[in-house]
């Protein structure tokens, strides 16, 4: 590699590529941003963002990996590594971005047992060789090694992007799973809290796929004309993950295809719209009960929502009903594309790695200390 790592680490402003492949398994999100850490804050300048969808085959391959099929994991690690390298190279060329310092990639999670073990795939060497820059990956392991849950990692990014001087806010990301960050005001001595609340869009996506053949319910349109079955939702809310206190993190293994076959075995006999409306309500209400139960929510006046779920009007309406006394903003209204927050987040966590700045928050993951996250491939 022609880049001198010592020079890179001393650079004040790093031009980073952040790559996110979330639990929705919908594709690769790419964010190119300049990142500069000051003593107390971080400055960012987003240069370009974009996405590259997974093919149906790649999505199916990833689904098979989730069953911990060893051969498929090895093959898909290679396939995703090549895909990320090709798509990122094309993206950078298309936008004339040829002065990148490093890439930070989350990788596709195929296994995560909170506090025990985690596996994100997509071999980083392909990117490192294609772009001739260092690649930072495997962000979760160092937190687990330090005694943490390994997730969520976005709360520190929310702090960098959204913490306010005078008032507390909650950030909610609606990806495959839903997670919240509680940001006390900068002047408060309260701790930042953050955890997964349960299902985000994954159950809705699974039901949509099974009942309509579509990967998701565009705009939440089908759910919006359905009727939610309150009694089903009330029963599901007693799930041990939803009632457990934080730290906690979850995934599709808990709220995915298996959950659907166990809890909604008869969904074919429901109206499709009602299934989707009921699952939307489950997502919204599980977020709401977790916020009320486990966050100092009385002082919160605003929730900032990001993730693809922002585009599901049914989930958003139900969240507005659940949080009627709180104003709901999308990250878009604050200048950040809802799809891109996590890709930007990993660009920032990659820059933090190069600068030797810790990326986990022990108050969130339960780790014994704050540690630098990620591994470097050169
Ligand atoms: N136009 C849309 N209408 C409704 N839902 C959408 C739309 N676009 C995205 N979504 C939802 O957002 C999900 C993807 O969100 P994303 O933030 O990429 O999650 P992840 O980080 O888990 O990949 C999709 O699976 C879908 O449920
Ligand atoms: Mg996604």
Task: Name its key features.
five-stranded mixed β-sheet; binds magnesium ion; alpha/beta; Nucleotidyltransferase, domain 5; binds adenosine-5'-diphosphate; about 20% strand; 2 domains; six-stranded mixed β-sheet; single chain; about 40% helix; about 375 residues
Question: How would you describe what is shown here?
Answer:
By secondary structure, the protein is α/β, with parallel strands linked by helices. The protein has two domains: 5-150 and 338-377, Nucleotidyltransferase, domain 5 (2-Layer Sandwich), CATH 3.30.420.40; 155-325, ATPase, nucleotide binding domain (Nucleotidyltransferase, domain 5, 2-Layer Sandwich). The protein contains 15 helices and 13 strands. The chain has a six-stranded mixed sheet with strand order 3-2-1-4-7-13, with helices on both faces. Strands 10-9-8-11-12 form a five-stranded mixed sheet, sandwiched between helices. 51% of the residues are buried. The mean pLDDT is 96. Magnesium ion binds at residues 22, 24, 26, 29.
Quick overview of this protein structure:
With 378 residues, the chain is an alpha/beta fold. It is built from 15 helices and 13 strands. Strand 2 and strand 3 form a beta hairpin.
Return the string of H and E elements: HEEEHHEEEHEHHEEEHHHHHHEHEHHE
How much of the sequence lies in strands comes to 15-25%
How much helicity do the residues have? 25-40%
CATH topology (level 3) name of the largest domain: Nucleotidyltransferase, domain 5
As residue ranges, the low-confidence spans are none
């Amino acid at each position: 590699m022609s880049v001198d790592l010592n020079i890179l680490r001393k650079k004040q402003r790093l031009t980073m590529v952040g790559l996110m492949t979330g639990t929705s398994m919908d594709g690769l999100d790419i964010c190119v941003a300049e990142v500069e850490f000051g003593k107390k804050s971080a400055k960012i300048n987003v240069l370009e963002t974009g996405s590259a969808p997974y093919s149906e085959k790649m999505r199916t391959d990833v689904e098979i990996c989730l069953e911990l099929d060893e051969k498929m994991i090895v093959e898909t690690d290679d396939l995703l590594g090549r895909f990320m390298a090709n798509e990122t190279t094309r993206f950078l060329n298309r936008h004339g971005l040829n002065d990148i310092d490093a890439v930070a990639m989350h990788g596709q999670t195929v296994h995560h047992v909170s506090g025990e073990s985690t596996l994100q795939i997509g071999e980083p060497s392909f990117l490192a060789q294609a772009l001739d820059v260092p690649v930072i990956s495997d962000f979760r392991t160092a937190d687990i090694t330090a005694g943490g849950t390994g997730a969520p990692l976005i709360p520190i990014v929310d702090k960098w992007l959204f913490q306010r001087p005078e008032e507390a806010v909650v950030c909610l990301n609606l990806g495959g799973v839903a997670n919240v960050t509680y940001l006390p005001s900068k002047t408060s001595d309260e701790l930042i809290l953050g955890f997964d609340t349960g299902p985000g869009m994954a159950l809705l996506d699974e039901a949509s796929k099974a009942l309509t053949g579509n990967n998701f319910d565009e705009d939440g349109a089908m759910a919006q004309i359905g009727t939610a079955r309150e009694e089903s939702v009330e029963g599901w809310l007693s799930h041990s993950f939803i009632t457990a206190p934080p730290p906690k993190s979850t995934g599709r293994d808990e709220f995915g295809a298996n959950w659907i076959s166990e809890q909604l075995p008869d969904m074919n006999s429901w109206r499709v719209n009602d299934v989707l409306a009921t699952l939307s309500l489950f997502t919204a209400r599980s977020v709401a009960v977790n916020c009320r139960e486990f966050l100092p929510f009385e002082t919160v006046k605003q929730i900032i929502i990001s993730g693809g779920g922002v585009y599901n009007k049914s989930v958003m309406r139900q969240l507005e009903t659940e949080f009627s006394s709180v104003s709901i903003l999308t990250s878009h209204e604050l200048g950040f594309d809802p799809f891109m927050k996590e890709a930007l987040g990993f660009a920032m966590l990659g820059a933090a790695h190069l600068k030797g700045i810790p990326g986990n928050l022990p108050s969130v993951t339960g780790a014994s200390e704050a540690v630098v996250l990620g591994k470097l491939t050169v």
